[in-house]
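User: I'm writing a short report section on ligand binding and want a predicted complex to refer to. Could you take this sequence and phenylalanine and write out the structure as tokens? A short remark afterwards would be nice.
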Amino acid sequence: MERENFGNRFGVLVAMAGSAIGLGNLWRFPYLVGSYGGAAFIFVYIFCVFLLCLPIFISEVIVGRRSRSNAYGAFKKLAPGTRWKWLGAVSVVTPIIVVSYYSVVGGWSVEYFFKSVTLDFTTGITRAEMGTMFGTFISSVWAPIIGHTIFLLLTAFIIVAGVKSGIEKFGKIMMPLLFVLIILIAIRAATLPGAGDGLKYLFKPDFSKIDATVCAAALGQAFFTLSLGVGTILTYGSYVSKKENIIASSTYTAVSDFLFAILASCAIMPAVFAFGLNPQEGPGLVFETLPFIFANMPLGWLAAILFFLALIVAALTSSISLYEVGVAYLVEERKYSRRGASVLVFLVAWILGILCSLSFGPLSDIRIFGQTIFNFFDKLSANVLMPVGGLLIVIFVGWAMKKNDVLDELTNGGTLKNRGISSFVLFLVRYVCPLAVIAVFLTAVIF
Ligand code: PHE
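Assistant: Sure. The structure tokens for the complex follow:
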């Protein structure tokens, strides 16, 4: 069977940006900005995204496009008979772990979308009551599992439709919609009285706030948001046609992802400040603080519906990219049909997700290395598997692959006339990225 490709450059961009832009931008980034000092965090983050993580992103696309294979097959093809295939094996398992807990949070978004449509967030609810509402919801048994199931089923439907008529088509409709939604909400938030302080918090850096913890958090977030180290960009890279310019497409993706994270913060922080709330709320920011704000601001009901719709859409385009890694592997290496592979990945992610969901309630006593199941999955993937996976990928591209093969991919066989920038990217991949990633994580561990 012939392998599918994305149709054109816009198709590549929406698929890649769809993977990158997700809960990481709307949920994780704003609360990290809030917790780690606003503009100073954003400053370090820009450096991490464009100088360290973009070259890693490019490396994943190179491995995918060069091998035209799934994450496991890629290493078997490019480095036959070596241990690199273990990196491939881990790259197939990690996204299944991520998609299982990711779709639990996706399920929370589904529930909060329904709540906003039925106008559950109304004036008179206090901030504390909103916190209790969220706590009671996630620790209950059925409601979050139903949300998780709906979310995972939606993901599976898009995947079954295929690369071009599923992933690419969905992205082409949803990604522009997502930008429109977030811009509308940002305009609403920025025009609230008192919003100026929030904008100042986002854009006026206080450099004294930068320390090792801030750097590690910024680098971790850059990995997470660019979907690195878990085989997703590699797998999408294998659907990129030989005509595309890898450096350009990857850079557009990183820029859109960055802009979206900033827009999301502009939709949230000004409102937090306008209501005199604490920006350092942590993970509860989106599900506790925001609904409280929506309940109390003019046209807030509409903003709530738009925001939770955006959250679902953003999460879906990311979860399909995680899901596709396992499906591509099963279809190409194990000869499953696309439908059969989708069912198998669904079952595994569904069951693991149920365990994650229950770990907020009845299973909260089960601890792995002192963490609940959900937190363990989250920490294991974001703090260990993703950075290590990303590090190994740059080492693979920088040192195990032939230099000429890498340059050949970057310049499309010399037809692109971008030799200078390609050599610079290769320099970053070989020296700067591995050393910087190791340094940041070691410093974070030591301090
Ligand atoms: N980048 C996605 C986000 O920001 C999360 C993700 C991580 C998706 C890893 C795929 C792979 O939400």
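A remark for your report: The chain has one domain: 9-53+83-230+246-380. Residues 84-117 form the longest helix (34 residues).
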